[in-house]
Amino acid sequence: MAGEGGALMEAGRTTATGTLLYSAELIQEGGAYKLVVTDQLRHTVQTAYVSRRAVEQLPTFLSKLNSLRLGGSR
Questions:
Q1: Are 24 and 13 in contact, with CB atoms under 8 Å apart?
Q2: Closest CA to 24 of 35, 32, 34, 14
Q3: Which position among 21, 31, 55, 58 has the lowest Cβ density within 10 Å, counted as fewest Cβ atoms?
């Protein structure tokens, strides 16, 4: 996720806009989808398989999060 928010600096795991706390990857393995979330502070990784329906709903979920942020709610 270094492309969004500026270049990632390896030493402190910080971006041009702040400290990277988590990173996530969504990987397609054949017909299955695997979500891999890395906790950058604790150096731990959690993996979960998610349904195709959940993957298809990601844009809607992200849109909802953005609208809450823009609306001033937290």
A1: no
A2: 35
A3: 31
> Minimal CA–CA distance to 21: which of 34, 5, 56?
5
Rg (CA), the chain: 15
> What are the angstrom distances between the C-alpha of 33 and each of 4, 57, 59, 61?
23, 13, 16, 17
pTM beyond cutoff 0.85: no
List the helix and strand counts (H, then E) for the chain: 2, 5
Q: What are the pLDDT digits (tens) for 26-39? A: 999 999 999 999 99
**Alpha-carbon torsion, ordered 58, 64, 70, 71, to 10 deg:** -170
Please check the confidence at residue 8 and state whether its pLDDT lies above 70: no
Q: d(Cα 37, Cα 24) in Å, to the nearest integer?
A: 4
